[in-house]
Specification:
Length: 448
């Protein structure tokens, strides 16, 4: 994405005597963050006009409110009909509905591409089990470097600390159950804590820097004490920071019982839950696909239709509730589409139409009969220029933007990036993927 801050940074970092190239390799980042991400950092941060990303966050909030209203507005208030329309298995819906209020908290992260004209929403991850919340540690490390600090001051760069916002949310949740600083337990699903342990210890380290005591555990480990409060390994817990997901609970009797304990303690005001699983009802990519369905669009206002068209690439619901017309369209337009599971994680099951043969595409489409899938219009992202710190050459990278949004608006951002020649799916499972932080700059100050 071309902008003045990026152009200046690339120009200055390409100079032979520049102190900017390779900053990510030199940055004095915190120990646990370094263990988690130190080997996969991009050589530079990325930059975005502040007004643009804040406006996109406002659009994301509006999309979230629209999604939450869909069951009432388009399905007669019947949540089961809505769930069937997005392909949710009944056992998933049952788990998501336990403890639901009908008014889920807005705490989400969009995955988005920038196509050169604006951000386009690929998916909206609603709930507290979000990666990237600790990225402001990298922002701070960059700013501590004298060369970058001078560049940042000159260009009036800024950033939003997502972890600071999360700490505030946890304190607000904890205020229901304690007058002091809350003891928070991050709970993963059964057997999953060790899989991403470095990520969680980085979050723990960052939250500690914001004054929040964070315990790490798995949901089945929590015990309900005689007074109704939860404890983890003997420590009373004021707030549960949920990192377990629906698929980890459904079908696991011990996890299901543990979720009931968590929801019961939350309802009794003994241990607060941040956030309940009801937000997952609106995180499926198929929920976004409904916004393009003719019957749903007919129920939207002109402003709402304009919002959907501005933010969201055309998306078709496939699978059990998808129409034959949608499937035929997908069959005929392979090169311009991406096939995605509605409830997929970490790009699992994603098929890029232009990267496969007709036969492979047909096989992928056949699989949609047995699982919730969407076909989404392919977004061609603008490229980010990055100076290679070892060769001095300028390369081009595709950036996937992780943009946080809360009830207060824009909640910070980070990027994962990949060279086009290293593949089309940007995920840390792809060894070519690199991550970095985001700085904003004032448009009017940079002549844009």
């Amino acid at each position: 994405m071309a902008n003045t801050a990026t152009e200046r940074y690339v120009e200055e970092s390409a100079r032979p005597d520049s102190e900017l190239p390779g900053l990510a390799e030199r940055a004095d980042i915190p120990q646990e963050y370094g263990k988690a991400y130190g080997n996969v950092l991009l050589a530079r941060p990325v930059f975005v006009p502040e007004n643009e990303i804040r406006a996109f966050a406002d659009d994301l909030a509006a999309v979230f409110r629209l999604l939450v209203a869909l069951p009432e507005r388009c399905f007669g208030g019947d949540l089961d009909r809505y769930a069937a329309a997005i392909g949710l298995p009944p056992e998933f819906t049952e788990v998501m509905r336990e403890g639901a209020t009908g008014d889920p908290l807005l705490y989400a992260r969009a995955d988005a591409f920038h196509d050169g004209a604006g951000f386009r929403l690929l998916e909206l991850n609603v709930g507290s089990e979000l990666g990237g919340v600790d990225t402001a540690q990298l922002n701070r490390a960059f700013l501590a470097d004298p060369a970058f600090g001078e560049f940042a001051a000159r260009n009036r760069l800024g950033h939003v600390d997502t972890m600071e916002l999360l700490a505030g949310e946890l304190r607000r949740a904890g205020a229901r159950v304690t007058d002091g600083e809350p003891v928070v337990a991050l709970l993963e699903g059964p057997g999953a804590l060790d899989e991403h342990s470095s990520v969680f210890t980085s979050i723990q380290e960052d939250l500690r820097g914001h004054g929040v005591d964070l315990l790490l555990g798995e949901v089945q480990e929590v015990v309900e004490e005689d007074d109704g409060k939860l404890s983890l390994r003997g420590r009373p817990v004021d707030v549960v920071l949920r990192y377990f997901a629906t698929y980890q609970i459904a079908g696991d009797a011990a996890a299901r019982a543990a979720l009931t304990r968590v929801n019961r303690a939350h309802a009794a005001g003994r241990t607060a839950l941040f956030t309940p699983l009801e937000g997952a009802l609106f995180t499926s990519k198929a929920a976004l696909g409904l916004l393009h369905r003719p019957a749903v669009r007919a129920a939207l206002t002109d402003d709402e239709r304009a919002l959907v068209d501005r933010v969201l690439p055309r998306t078709w619901v496939l699978g059990a509730d998808g129409s034959e017309d949608a499937l035929e369209y997908a069959r005929a337009h392979r090169a311009g589409l991406v096939l995605k599971p509605g409830m997929g994680y970490s790009a699992d099951g994603v098929v890029i139409g232009r990267d496969v043969t007709d036969a492979e595409w047909e096989a992928a489409l056949a699989a949609t009969a047995h699982r919730d899938y969407v076909a989404q219009e392919l977004v061609v992202p603008a490229l980010e220029k990055v100076v290679d710190p070892h060769t001095g050459r300028i390369g081009e990278w595709v950036a996937n933007w992780g943009i946080f949004v809360t009830g207060e608006g824009f909640g910070g951002a980070f990027c994962r990036a990949l060279k086009p020649e290293d593949g089309s799916v940007i995920t840390y499972a792809n060894p070519g993927t690199r991550g970095t932080c985001v700085f904003t700059f004032p448009e009017e100050e940079n002549g844009i």
